[in-house]
Specification:
Length: about 170
């Protein structure tokens, strides 16, 4: 039980650090600081790798608990452990508290991720708009030439800035 509690505490602590980084990421996205964004993304990846290790450890601990208690490994979760601890209210309330704290942290992390995702999408749309605008500025306008049927021929003017055919 102590191992499970320790892993949950470590997981929550790591997510709290990731939240701090995600808040900084929000500011960096608003400022448009690409270099710092790359640094933050690299640090997030390292933290995610650590979190994956905690998750693997938590699952291993839960599987070991399931073996000891003679329960199925496949559906043995923290919720199952909370139900089993009904006869030990002190341990049960501690596990409930750890679970709830981790849930709150994960909810905050999800909100920040959603916010950052929206900011990234906005930035990409702005870049796409700028590229389209730049492309249209470089493209020459159509001529007002018409054929026999009075339809526009759609001829484009040359795109160079200097016309040598004068």
């Amino acid at each position: 039980m102590e191992d499970l509690a320790d892993v949950l505490l470590q997981e929550d602590k790591q997510y709290q650090e990731l939240i701090v980084l995600s808040k900084e990421k929000t500011d960096v996205l608003v400022a448009g600081n690409v270099k710092r964004l790359e640094e933050i993304t690299a640090m997030e990846q390292e933290m995610t790798d650590v979190l994956h290790g905690y998750e693997v450890r938590r699952r291993t601990i839960l599987q070991d608990m399931a073996d000891v208690l003679g329960k199925s490994k496949d559906d043995f979760t923290i919720e199952t452990m909370i139900q089993i601890l009904e006869s030990q209210p002190k341990e049960q309330s501690r596990l409930i508290s750890l679970r709830d704290k981790l849930h709150r942290t994960l909810k905050e992390m999800a909100q920040l991720n959603t916010q950052n995702q929206a900011l990234i999408k906005q930035s990409l749309e702005m870049v796409e708009f700028d590229l389209t605008l730049f492309k249209s500025l470089r493209q020459a306008p159509e001529t007002a030439n018409y054929n026999k049927s009075a339809y526009n021929t759609g001829d484009l003017l040359g795109s160079s800035a200097f016309d040598t055919k004068q």
